[in-house]
Amino acid sequence: MNSSKHTELANHAWSVADLLRGDYRQSDYGKVILPFTVLRRLECVLEPTREKVVETVARFAGQEIDTDHFLRKASGHSFYNKSDLTLRKIAADPQNAAKNLQIYVGAFSDNAREVLDKYEFNQQVRKLDGANLLYLVIGKFTDLDLHPDVVPNHNMGYIFEELIRRFAEQSNETAGEHFTPREVIKLMVNLLVAPDADALSVPGVVRTVMDPACGTGGMLSAADDRIKALNPDATVEVYGQELNPESWAICRSDLMIKGQDPENIRFGNSFSDDGHARRRFDYILANPPFGVEWKKVKEDVEYEHKSLGDAGRFGAGLPRINDGSLLFLQHMISKMKPVDVNGGGGSRIAIVFNGSPLFTGAAESGESNIRRWILENDWLEAIVALPDQLFYNTGISTYFWILTNRKDADHKGKVVLLDARDQWQKMRKSLGDKRKELGDGTNGRPDHIGDITRLYAEALQVAGDPEHALRGKVKVFWNEDFGYQRITVERPLKLRFEVTEETLAALAEAKPVAKLERSEEFVAAVRTLLGSSWTTKSEAFVALKDAVVAAGLTWPSGAPFAKAVREAVGVRDPEGEVQKVKGAPEPDTDLRDYENVPLGEDVEEYLKREVLPHVPDAWIDHTKTKIGYEIPFTRHFYVYKPPRPLAEIDAELKSLEAEIQVLLGEVAP
């Protein structure tokens, strides 16, 4: 089935919006069109065995036995409908359409009915009936041919996703929240399973695939297809979890249609209600929503982090509340199978991120600690930079992170960075914010997917060959190369001391002075020294104390008071006296600086080389040193482009001026 057929069928379903306009808000069209599309698909799938199911129902009528097994066998699927009604019959009786439709939906098996319940289908039926639209909507869908011989299972996913894309645009959904373009999924799955091609070709191989943010199930379907392309006899079991009820319903119905167990797709939030808590999987992949906050599950996540620590999913750290991307990755890592003593077992992970998880968060922040945990465990295999404008609802740049706990010997301790940002072609027609696509080598298109997949497989060899044409697109680093020591560079506080109108005002406002019973007299006594200055604190304090005592006042004792006076009358001066605390220079917080020193480098040597030549009195406060990890991807691939010569720019400007004069001459009277 070509893309024009997908669009034609999606347009047919979307045309129901013309009936809904006025009675429904645009953002609510999906609450009608999606469940009716699912219902029509289920009806078309069950049509060949409908009579057999009805006969089975009649045969067991009146018998108190569980007929579920017999009805599934009769339908040939994991779901069935016991009624002899059809949407066409229901549409033919407008007066009883609502009643008959509810009877029809109620006759589905529990697993199919649960899918429709997530759409609040009965509520929509009542609303449509009240607006005298129900039989018209049903009639529209009876003309939609979704039989499997016309629309195979895989192609049905395209239609679902096209409908969801339109609804997401209408309701202004969060960027990339529901689904991922098919060609992006294909590349992602290639990078995920390609290294296992030999193992996957073994007869009778069984592999499990899991997506904790599965949306409509596109990634699961693509992984299933890819593994079976390598080995048609392979058994692939797919699992997922989804928070959006419509997406969950679509994914679950898709699995039902394909003969997979729909119970493998759990509904709910993966963070607060892990639907696969005790399961481990061979492949885990996801495109979690970008930059979405996790405030709703904050209590659950923080409780697990604090109470379970490393025994839970989030022991490495918690990212900032407005972006849960790295929580998803920790959740996925918790689903990896352990590697046995012979090197067997283990898992591979692929996840789509924007740029934020690469570098957001200072040293020892939640994000930095998560990156550190991943890199120090040698799980990160590669990061692949993709072109921007690949996704429907966002034009931002994106990256694949590929992780595994069973790296081969050549990859151990290393991370591959692969720049594929120039691997795209412009779409003939934009879809939302998606203006670029990855070619797959068909219909005259370039084979971006194949080229990236091959470059990924050969990354180590390409990076090590200075003559290779693509060497600039691949860089290989040791895990430690992304670590750094965040050092605090201090310089001494240097002060001179003086009594001026400004320092007198500061003295009067200081709390220890303002609390004195005779504070105004205290300040007045110091005022007698207006215009005086001293190079040392001891000289200044002697003079100040003498002036206060001479005025018949007592000089207060205590460190807080002394500090307040010093802060008031002390003025920063590069040539001033170095202030000391317990014999050591006191750091000047205004001159405090921070430096990132590569992990493993001697920080004192760094100080001597980079800092002391410029500020000889600086030192490192080692108690404040922190360890951080970041992956500055774009910095590693930055290529300097010199500015154009001024003569060239000047010539271009003169040429443009001449063109403008010619144009003005043509319009002048």
Unreliable spans are 173-177
Proportion of beta-strand residues: 5-15%
Spatial strand order of the main sheet:
3-2-1-4-5-7-6-8-11
- First-to-last CA distance: 61 Å
DSSP summary, beta strand count:
21
Count of alpha and pi helical runs: 29
The dominant shape is elongated
Instruction: Give Rg in angstroms.
Output: 35 Å
Share of residues in helices: 40-55%
- Major sheet summary line: 9 strands, mixed
Whole-number mean pLDDT: 91
Return the structural class.
Answer: alpha+beta
Description:
There is one protein chain. Helix content is 43%, strand content 14%. By secondary structure, the protein is of the alpha+beta class. It is built from 29 helices and 21 strands. A nine-stranded mixed beta sheet has the order 3-2-1-4-5-7-6-8-11, with helices on both faces. Strands 12, 19, 20 and 21 form a four-stranded antiparallel beta sheet that branches. Strands 13, 14, 15 and 16 form a four-stranded antiparallel beta sheet that branches. The longest helix has 22 residues, at 646-667. Its EC number is 2.1.1.72. This is site-specific DNA-methyltransferase (adenine-specific). InterPro entries: D12N6_MeTrfase_N, DNA_Adenine_Mtase, DNA_methylase_A-5, DNA_methylase_N6_adenine_CS, SAM-dependent_MTases_sf, T1MK-like_N_sf. It is an enzyme of class 2 (transferase). It holds the Pfam family HsdM_N.
